[in-house]
Amino acid sequence: MKCTKCNKAGCSCTKSPAKMSCGSSPLKKTAAWTRKEGKDPKGGLNAKGVASYRKENPGSKLQTAVTKKPSELKPGSKDAKRRKSFCARMSGMPGPLKKPNGEPTRKKLALDKWNC
């Protein structure tokens, strides 16, 4: 097994992952949009998550959420149409809005962030 940072087969990382001489992890990290650091605690993805998604999926046009209130958006504008489309799609998704412990699910957080 080669080290992910120094690419050496004899690196001490492979012998003892607890003592990494080159400072890298032998495990490959997944994209930020799939981990906590790419997700916004208030729902949806943050800018880092969107950037990592676009890097992993070239040609995608993923953007951050439209967080303006509907009253502040000009009717028929690009943002108003994106918001309306997202709300229509996401509101129809199956699944609860609350977890068994009473906390809101990621779905509920996203709907709230988009003012749906």
Question: Which runs of at least 5 residues are low in confidence (pLDDT < 50)?
Answer: none
Number of domains: 3
User: Structural class of the secondary structure composition?
Assistant: mainly alpha
Count of distinct strands = 0
> What is the mean predicted local confidence, pLDDT?
83
Question: What composes the largest sheet?
Answer: none
- Spell out the helices and strands N to C: HHHH
- Span of the ends, CA to CA: 49 Å
Question: How would you describe this structure to a colleague?
Answer:
The chain is mainly alpha-helical and 116 residues long. It is built from four helices and no strands.
List key phrases describing it:
mainly alpha, 3 domains, single chain, 116 residues, 31% helix
Element layout with pairings:
Blueprint: H1 12-15, H2 47-56, H3 78-91, H4 106-113
Sum this structure up briefly.
The protein is mainly alpha-helical and 116 residues long.
